[in-house]
Design a protein that fits this description.
20 strands, 20 helices, five-stranded mixed sheet, about 600 residues, alpha/beta, eight-stranded mixed sheet, about 15% strand, DHBP synthase
């Protein structure tokens, strides 16, 4: 049985192809269209999924969409009535929020585009699954037989926060907030207020928060009030987004309290850092307030956190550390990138009643490119390369990283979700204090306050990080053990945390073996892992990996079994700071205490 989950006309469009309850393919359209956070119909993803497999619409049992359109229309109609007659302004098309309107007409647009794409008028049944139901369905792919499920995002069909319990192949929703009582939207709006891009740059604000102080925390607590029974209430006297275009979300009271908005071109000041700190601190308090209530109320000792707010890895680490849950699991596609997969899982298990047989333990569910395609991509650029057997490639790459080189690591199927987790990664030496600056200067061009993440062998994780268990999807930011902060300084954030990925060999043998080889060379089984891209979606195909290599200052490409350092006329001059590598175990042995 095949089910296609699909979403379009919102940010992060894409597809998921489910076969007998297990995902066969998950593709975000941005990876192939090369348009970041695209809202366009996922035609490239559909072509890749169906043409390469010789499939057509007739091979599908159903198509699922992760929005309940009827419910959403009722929600917005009620909001319009509450705001009448001021809401008449929404009749002006220029005043409408484009994402909301796209969702309201989603069924019609998806049907029209599917017919056009497949040149047919006959479609399989199309089933709408509630948005929070789609997020909650991550439980069906979790390692738990039972769990409490907390969904938090910007907004869904009728809610911004929802609580479910899951057991076996069933989920039950117990309570939810209304759609505008949203922690996620507060975070997005304040991200925009601070001069960053909403629905894209919330992670930047999370990083910036560690540089701020408590000056605005008490004022921010008035915006989000904690209530009994795990509830909270966003004070709407500060915000104005009830069914409105989200271009002017602040009422004068917010500006009077926190000052004028920062424009993108303006420098970051202490006030901005303090506001980011207050936002993060109060959001963490609200999430912990909810989670502690769930811990007291429901019997399961397992917690699944999903929805866009679940990308807040600092808050996730606090929930894992500061509540009574034994295990906290966050899927790698907690945001809307996972909604198509969730809608298909909900239909397969909740609606059709099929038993569970799949656990999501790896993220490489995209497309794979073989030797012929890799060689053709190299040859098209006239680059020389070597083909090395697995162990030889691992040793060569590990030595290059130990010598201070930055490696573009491209292996197997590309990952689903917003994070590169070992198949489309840039890898570097975490022991070099200057490596963060080198990565930014030569490739990433990121804000200097943003940290780079470490990956560690799972059996070595507790030697470096305050972790209770594995975290293969980089969903938490635990503390780095103080004695190790000077050993891997390039991965330690200013607050002493790191957004760590643990890697087990059975999940990704080649990635594991490379990190192990680096550990044997240096005594440090840890690498910097950041996404293989430069201000673009993460690379998907060999051509994009090579293009990124040639226009930046990546030193080495490892594409499949192929090793390349040939830059030729594309080479750029290096600065003196790039020329002094740390090598061998000496750097580890002589690293002092912080």
């Amino acid at each position: 049985m095949r089910i296609l989950g699909i979403v379009s006309d919102t940010h992060d469009t894409g597809i998921a192809l489910l076969q007998d309850g297990a995902p066969d393919l998950v593709i975000e359209e941005e990876r192939l269209s090369r348009r970041k956070h695209t809202s366009r119909f996922p035609e490239h993803a559909l072509t890749a999924a169906f043409d390469a497999r010789g499939l057509g619409l007739g091979d599908l049992e159903a198509i699922t969409i992760p929005w309940n359109i009827s419910r959403l229309r009722r929600t917005f109609a009620a909001a319009l009535m509450r705001r009448f007659p001021a809401s008449l302004s929404l009749l002006n098309p220029a005043a409408r929020p484009t994402q909301r309107d796209g969702i309201l007409f989603l069924n019609h647009r998806i049907r029209r585009n599917l017919r056009k794409h497949f040149a047919t008028t006959s479609l399989p049944p199309i089933i709408n699954v509630g948005h929070h139901d789609s997020h909650a369905a991550a439980f069906f792919a979790s390692p738990f037989e039972d769990a409490t499920v907390l969904v938090m995002d910007g907004y869904g069909d009728d809610a911004a926060t929802s609580v479910y319990t899951g057991k076996g192949n069933r989920l039950e929703r117990h309570w939810h907030t209304d759609i505008f009582n949203s922690l996620g939207m507060v975070y997005t709006f304040v991200t925009h207020y601070l001069g960053f891009g909403g629905f894209a740059d919330e992670g930047k604000v999370m990083a910036l928060a560690a540089y701020g102080g408590p000056a605005y925390v008490e004022r921010f607590r008035k915006l989000i009030r904690l209530e009994p029974e795990g509830r909270y209430r966003v004070d709407m006297s500060y915000f104005d987004y009830d069914a409105h275009a989200m271009l002017r979300p602040f009422k004068p009271k917010f500006i009077d309290t926190f000052g004028p908005m920062r424009q993108r071109h303006e420098p970051l000041e202490d006030r901005h850092r303090d506001i980011a700190h207050a936002l993060q601190a109060v959001i963490e308090e609200a999430i912990l307030h909810i989670a502690r209530h769930l811990d007291r109320t429901y019997p399961s000792r397992n917690l699944v956190i999903t929805g866009g707010v679940a990308l807040n890895c600092v808050a996730n680490a606090r929930v894992a550390r500061d509540t009574g849950f034994h295990d906290v699991w966050v899927p790698p596609v907690a945001s809307d990138t996972g909604a198509p997969l969730g809608s298909a899982l909900w239909h397969y298990h909740q609606t059709l009643g099929n038993p569970r047989s799949y656990v999501l333990d790896r993220v490489s569910l995209g497309l794979e490119y073989g030797p012929a395609e890799i060689e053709a991509a190299f040859d098209a650029q006239g680059l020389s390369y070597e083909r090395l057997p697995g162990a030889a490639l691992d040793q060569r790459v590990a030595q290059a990283i130990a010598d201070g080189k930055i490696v573009g690591w491209f292996q197997g199927r590309f990952e689903m979700g917003p994070r590169a987790l070992g198949n489309r990664s840039l890898l570097a030496d975490p022991r070099r204090p200057d490596m963060k600056d080198i990565l930014n200067a030569r490739i990433k061009s990121r804000e200097p306050f943003r940290p780079f993440a470490p990956v560690v062998l799972v059996e070595e994780a507790q030697r470096f990080f305050v972790l209770d268990g594995p975290d293969p999807f980089m969903t938490k930011a635990p503390l780095v053990i103080p004695a190790m902060r000077s050993v891997i300084p390039a991965t330690v954030h200013v607050d002493g945390t790191a957004r760590v990925q643990t890697i087990a060999r059975d999940a990704n043998p080649r990635y594991y073996d490379l990190i192990k080889a680096f550990g044997e060379l240096t005594g440090v089984p840890v690498l910097i892992n950041t996404s293989f891209n430069e201000r673009e979606p993460i690379v998907a195909r060999p051509q994009e990996a090579i293009a990124c290599f040639l226009r930046t200052e990546i030193d080495v490409l490892a594409l499949g079994d192929y090793y390349c350092e040939d830059r030729r006329q594309h080479a750029k001059p290096r600065t003196s700071s790039d020329k002094a590598p740390l090598t061998g175990t000496h750097a580890f042995a002589t690293s002092g205490e912080p």
